[in-house]
Amino acid sequence: MATKFDMSDLIRNDHFIDGKWVASASGKRFDVTNPATGEVITAVADGNEADARAATDAAARAFPAWRDALPKERAAVLHRWHALMLENADALGRLISLEQGKPFAEGRGEVLYGASYVAWFADEATRIYGDLIPQQQRGKRMSAVREPVGIVAAITPWNFPLAMIARKIAPALAAGCTVVGKPAEDTPLTALALVHLAHEAGVPPGVLNLIAASRENAVPAVAEWLHDSRVRKITFTGSTPVGKYLARESADTLKKLSLELGGNAPFIVFDDADLAAAVSGLLVSKFRNGGQTCVCPNRVYVQSSVYEKFGDMLAKRVAALKVAPATDPSAEIGPMINARAIDKIARHVDDAVSKGARVLAGGKRLTALGSNYYAPTVLADATSTMQLSCEETFGPVVPLFRFDDEAQAIRAANDTPFGLASYFYSQDIRRIDRVVRRLEAGIVGINEGALASEAAPFGGVKESGYGREGSKYGLDDYLSIKYLCQGGLE
Predict the structure, then answer these.
(1) Residue 490: what pLDDT?
(2) What does the pLDDT read at residue 37?
(3) Catalytically annotated residue among 124, 185, 260, 463
(4) Family per UniProt (predicted)?
(5) Which part of the chain is CATH 3.40.605.10?
(6) What distance in Å separates the CA atoms of residue 285 and residue 210, rounded to the nearest whole number?
(7) Which segments of the chain belong to CATH 3.40.309.10?
(8) Tens of pLDDT along 337-373?
(9) What's residue 338's pLDDT?
């Protein structure tokens, strides 16, 4: 029977290293705050190079035994972890809402989403196959086997504090790797709670280690992993500039990297689309977590003949969205993560309006609720001269761009250094085939706004990174191929 905890039981404020909860080497701590109120939740151990090194030492000691464990033994641990996540979905969902701000329904949904990766990779642990290569020379047998890469460093963002780290840890443990990790400084509590449940599930000491670090100490702590040759892989979700830094700084030790980086997703509505379905799909894809996701549509292109109608339909739906703290059961959008996020959203909207955009809905801060709230916004007459056309807003703002023909829409959609997600709505099957082939993105939604699934490969192209998370491909970056050649058989 899985153990059920209250949310307060899950809050941990120390590092987890070698199976123990430990304070930082410096003794320093930093505050974690509730974005809805600005109140301090708790003070968490502030990790530095010494803590990162201690985590790596523990992972190195634990690696041989975990690597040699039977796949079904690793799978059993992951299945127990999955059961604990489900048993504690409500408590974890409330914790996500508390430190990240998303409504409880979304927080609980994130728990189930993250847990689905743990269950998926628990099963995949027993399906790591090799190949017997057809004989090329007499007396020789050739084969290829896949082995765990070694210690994995997982670095995760604040917008999905459970799902992002679960879908990195789960394949690593399934493959036989050991893990060192650092969650975002804004949201470390959910990750620490997840590690607590992993420990309860029987993950051996040293196999999974997690440190927290403030903005000031995050760079030196991570640099310790980048320069340590024992760490063989970095998996990171976050901004493109940070991803490029990780690639540069880890180059001397030639680590494997999985980088799921920034996006600037287009959403195209053709004149033959089901407009009601397109509006609903856009609401799902854009306003999840208040627009604070890397696959949120940032540029919405609508064909001229349906432009005004679509804008009116969308504005009515967006204006009706309920903005409130996560403690309000009717909340559909919560606060943004911090003041920097609000300032960027306001800057983008103000810039667009100053250059001719029309506000169809929202367009203002909601200061009566608190300092971190912004109204869901629809802007008409957006153009490529506006900041929001080339910078990811990461907030509840929908800019509507007008286009005349298919070729123009494809050019505009691809006119970005990023290539994570793209969406389009059309009922023309020939057009669907053409557009799918021409969009430069790792993920494409066709008449669909909800793309996430543990069974699908998630990742981008161009400056949105490389590597895939989830699906049967999700183990590849945690494994290396060893070629075996046995001679003297005749």
Answers:
(1) 87
(2) 95
(3) 260
(4) Belongs to the aldehyde dehydrogenase family.
(5) 7-261+464-484
(6) 31
(7) 265-453
(8) 999 999 999 999 999 999 999 999 999 999 999 999 9
(9) 95
Distance CA 177, CA 259 (A): 18
Tokens of 340: 């920097």
User: 38: helix, coil or strand?
Assistant: coil
Which residues on neighbouring strands pair with residue 482, listed in sequence order? Answer: 145
Give the integer Cα–Cα distance in Å for 415 and 298.
13
pLDDT beneath 50, residues of the chain: none
Sign of CA dihedral 112, 115, 117, 119: negative
Contacts for 209 with CB less than 8 Å, ≥ 6 apart: 15, 16, 17, 18, 55, 56, 58, 59, 178, 179, 180, 181
Q: 265-453 has which CATH code?
A: 3.40.309.10
- Please check whether residue 374 is in contact with residue 395, taking contact to mean a CB–CB distance below 8 angstroms: yes
Q: Which amino acid is residue 183, in one-letter code?
A: P
Instruction: Write down the pLDDT at residue 3.
Output: 85
Residue range 7-261+464-484 in CATH 3.40.605.10: yes
**Distance (Å, whole) CA 93 – CA 102:** 9
DSSP string, 129-157: --EEEPP-STT-EEEEEEEE-SEEEEE--
Instruction: Say whether 406 is catalytic.
Output: no
Per-residue b/e over 27-37, b at no fewer than 16 CB within 10 Å?
ebbbebebbbb
In the 8-state DSSP scheme, what is residue 166? Answer: H
The conformational region for residue 202 under phi > 0 = left, psi -120 to 50 = alpha, else beta, is left
CA 441, chain centre distance (Å): 16
